[in-house]
Amino acid sequence: MKVSFEGKVLAVKARIRLIRSFDQIPTHQYQGYILVMKGRAGEVERDFRVAIGPKAHEKHQFRIGDLVSGKGVPVSDPNTEWGEFYKISGLKLLERGSGPDNAPPGPEGGIAPALEVYRANSHRRLDRQTWEKQCFACPWGLDMVTEIIIDQWNSWKKKWRFETHCYGPKDCPKYNPGKPYRVPGRAAGMVYVDDDVERAAGQGDSEHD
Questions:
Q1: Cα–Cα distance between 81 and 58 in angstroms, integer?
Q2: Is the residue at 207 inside a domain?
Q3: Which of 73, 83, 146, 206 is the most buried (most CB within 10 A)?
Q4: What string of DSSP letters covers 141-209?
Q5: Any idea what DSSP says for residue 109?
Q6: How far apart are CA 195 and CA 176, in angstroms?
């Protein structure tokens, strides 16, 4: 059953899934974008998140303050999606926000870039409290669904969690990496500490669309 929604955009984030397998360099699924909104979802006034495709963002170039409406399906498992609604139909930009049309992404908002830019930049871990207090409006700062394959020979054994990461410029004064992420392995006590060394050394950002 689809739910009707209408509200103002509070932030625009890329929708990227991170896939981990112990000590392997993470891979990614570049899925689209998330509109963080405040307004009405169904019959309730509240904050909510809507997952949209790359083409929709390319067409409308959503930004903070836009008034948007549409219909979406509630996600089946909130542990595997940061968005609350997806499979969106009837998406409409009802009113444009006051921000400039060409504002670059930054801590105050701006236009989220194409997914190819996120892929080229790669990610660095981002302290969650910093994300909440300093980076919530920034298109570069993401709260990413993370799929952890516990046993690469039995890929159905997996866990899910959310990790905060930054895709923005390395000289951002608000950036705080926080503690490295710990990735469990297939045996009790097996833990890999991901301190971003491989990506910082320029060994690449693996992709999986």
A1: 22
A2: no
A3: 83
A4: EEEEEEEEEEETTEEEEEEEEEEEEE-S-TT-TT----SPEEEE-SSTT-EEEE-SHHHHTT-------
A5: B
A6: 13
User: Residue 17's domain spans which residues?
Assistant: 3-200
In a domain, 205, yes or no: no
pLDDT in tens, the chain (209 residues): 999 999 999 999 999 999 999 888 899 999 999 999 999 999 999 999 999 999 999 999 999 999 999 999 999 999 999 999 999 999 999 999 988 888 999 999 999 999 999 999 999 999 999 999 999 999 999 999 999 999 877 777 899 999 999 999 989 999 999 999 999 988 888 999 998 865 665 544 545 54
Does residue 173 form part of some domain? yes
In a domain, 206, yes or no: no
Q: How many domains does the chain have?
A: 1
